[in-house]
Amino acid sequence: VQLMESGGGLVQPGGSLRLSCAVSGFTFSSHVMSWHRQTPGKERERVAVITSLGGTTRYADSVKGRFTISRDNAKNTVYLQMNSLKPEDTAVYYCRADGVVVYWGQGTQVTVSS
């Protein structure tokens, strides 16, 4: 089982990034997928979730209207489009797959700074 995040990096406030999480080793299309983030000393926070067929999405209030989660079941990939980034969005971002077993990726750093 592998969940590989990519797309993180350094961006200025107001900028955009798109994170990707490519998965293998399990049936992607049967899993609810979500993005979470964590900063040192804080609990991991869920920022967005999408159902297995992509019909329903939910967002944390802190990112609503700025972030968009999507998935491509043909490519076994989930995305997080992040717009209007703020310094407080700085964190390590993780993707998670929920099925009978929960799987986590290794994380990708997002830094929002001028």
Overview features:
11 strands, about 110 residues, mainly beta, 4-stranded antiparallel beta sheet, 7-stranded mixed beta sheet
Reported for the largest beta sheet, the result is: 7 strands, mixed
Q: How far apart are the termini?
A: 37 Å
Count of alpha and pi helical runs: 0
- The overall pLDDT average reads 96
Structural class: mainly beta
Beta-strand proportion: over 45%
Helix content percent band = under 10%
| Total beta strands | 11
The shape, in one word, is globular
Gyration radius, to the nearest Å? Answer: 13 Å
Write structural notes for this entry.
The protein has strands spanning 2-6, 9-11, 17-24, 32-38, 45-50, 57-59, 67-72, 77-82, 91-98, 102-104, 108-112. The model has no long low-confidence stretch (mean pLDDT 96). The protein has no helices and 11 strands. A hairpin with a 3-residue loop joins strand 9 and strand 10 (102-104). It starts with a strand and ends with a strand. With 114 residues, it is mostly beta strands. 0% of the residues lie in helices and 53% in strands.
